[in-house]
Amino acid sequence: MTIRSSEIRVLCSRVPDYPNTAITVQGWVHGIRRMGGLAFVDVRDRSGVVQCVLEGELAETPLSLESVIAVEGVAVLAPKAPRGVEIRAAGIAVLSEAEAPLPFELNKKTLSAKLETMLDHRTLSLRHPKTHATFRIQSALAGAFRDYLSGQGFTQIFTPKIVASGTEGGSNLFGVDYFERKAYLAQSPQFYKQMMVGAGYERVFEIAPVYRAEEHNTSRHLNEYVSLDVEVGFIRSEEELMDLEQRLLAYMFERAAVGCGEELALLGVEVPSIVDIPRMTVAEAQAILRRKYGKTSPKGDLDPEGERLLCKHVAEGSKPALVFLTRYLKEIRPMYAMPAPEDESLTASFDLLFNGLEITTGGQRIHDYAMLTASMRSRGLDPDRFAGYMDVFRYGMPPHGGFAIGLERLTSRLLGLPNVREASAFPRDRTRLTP
């Protein structure tokens, strides 16, 4: 079929805007139903699905599900059709034929295949409307993150992902051969975002992948994920950072609710309205868990079950399941964490839990050169190995702090996905390197 120049390609969602008009739609064959000399072909593109009616010889056109086609015809009102309109086809062309049978059905309301099967055939499972909705919403969240911070005087930065040493001197590093020496994939842009604050930019953010060589193979973990990082100079305490994240998330959620209404409705998700996220110390949280649920916790921290129970506690009534945890022990926080003013065994740091899972870690950082040097040495780290990072503290560093949000975790918690891999287009976990 040759598409005539008088006809224009119209997205499926916009077909109702062209009644009694000759148009062309292009997309994937989402469904085929043949009856009484007619073929009803559902065409799916990035915007949705529209029904096309083929008659006569056109109805005999051989088609397979997920083949890419172009259909030209006239849009007419049809109350029983999806969106109340259908295309009476005058011509059809197969642009790319799909093999049959498919590994799993895509034209059902929900994908019924096992997660591993869907990930093995990821480019196919990504086509499902609900999966499409997930990543449209995720895109909106990331865009809102960027827009809000840009409007608050932040500068977007781009930092190296091949580094000479670990951000925190830890062992969860992916080593890479870097010519004649050993290098590593960055666990975090932490050092670089601090350096940019000290370089006079004061307020910076980054949206980029980070890498953690953790052995965990759970529904909570990825070995490569997108980190939404923020760092702010001239703060008085970590309270300012929690205030900032609260406003930031409120804006991100509102933007997603307004811009992705159809996608959220398809997934059956209601975006929570954020007003005041409760804050409590780890010790206070542990006391609540003991008293209310008989739950004991690890020293100075919460385990996954404790995180779920605490979110259940704060969500009673109509409140969203969000809670800041503060005052983590110094021994379980990085060497750059600022000690709490009232007790140096604690830190001016925090986590944010959302629907049973930690999505953020943040806090005030040490800005004094001598204090940071002493903190490094107390952890068995040699400050000379971090000379490039330490320079900014030698030459004047303002009080500062920041936080990082895991984009996949945020998406999975907002949408109620049972596994964080479902919020990654091409996840990398303990066993998966393809596709």
UniProtKB/TrEMBL annotation:
Enzyme class per UniProt: ligase
Reactions performed catalytically: tRNA(Asx) + L-aspartate + ATP = L-aspartyl-tRNA(Asx) + AMP + diphosphate
Region entry Aspartate, spans: 190-193
EC number of this enzyme: 6.1.1.23
Keywords of the record: Aminoacyl-tRNA synthetase, ATP-binding, Cytoplasm, Ligase, Nucleotide-binding, Protein biosynthesis
Complex formation: Homodimer.
Name this polypeptide is given: Aspartate--tRNA(Asp/Asn) ligase
Organism annotation: Paenibacillus flagellatus
Lineage per the UniProt record: Bacteria, Bacillati, Bacillota, Bacilli, Bacillales
